[in-house]
């Protein structure tokens, strides 16, 4: 069965974006970039990865899930951001499609039911790339966490699991790697 991995950058105080949705304080350069890319190849928009000379082939995921706000970060320049992956965007307005987004699947379907169906399909892993509200909705379906903890405090914004209410969930650490840049890659599996 396929697994759902929530792989995301997060601040020390648990935010994946600032109060206005900004994430530019997260480190985009440093000694953490190469090793994390090796582990999570294919988790950058296709055009950006190719421009940087990074291969998107043979990554751990073949499907990416996003909330509408996470998807909108790349607009209008990247309406088909992860061309190398199956892309699902959860939105209340699936008929509203940006030009150039024909390969992106917009859906108002129940995220939990959708993920359960995806897990039964053949393939590689499923990547939840954001946002926090979607992660809160899917918390009981998340099998693995891969957190790129950045050495910054945002003081508010979009929480790792959004405003959703959920029960305490135990996680087992499966790996931790600290880098001189200050970034820590912390990986967990559901207990």
From TrEMBL:
Gene3D superfamilies: Dihydrofolate Reductase, subunit A. SUPFAM superfamilies: Dihydrofolate reductase-like (SSF53597). This is Dihydrofolate reductase. InterPro entries: DHFR-like_dom_sf, RibDG_C, Riboflavin_Biosynth_HTPR. It comes from Microbacterium nanhaiense. The gene is folA2. Residues 4-185 form the Bacterial bifunctional deaminase-reductase C-terminal domain.
